[in-house]
Amino acid sequence: MFLKDPRPPEPGKSPVWMYGRDYFPDAEHWVEIWMVTGDHTMMPGTAAGAEKIVHLGPDGHRGGPYPKYHHDADNLMFFTGTDPDAPRDLGAHVEFHLGEGDAMQVFHFEEPRCIVIPRGVRHFPMIVSGLRRPFVVTDVLTAPTRSAAGTETDFSFVAPDRGAERGRA
Question: Are 82 and 136 in contact (CB under 8 A)?
Answer without folding.
Answer: yes
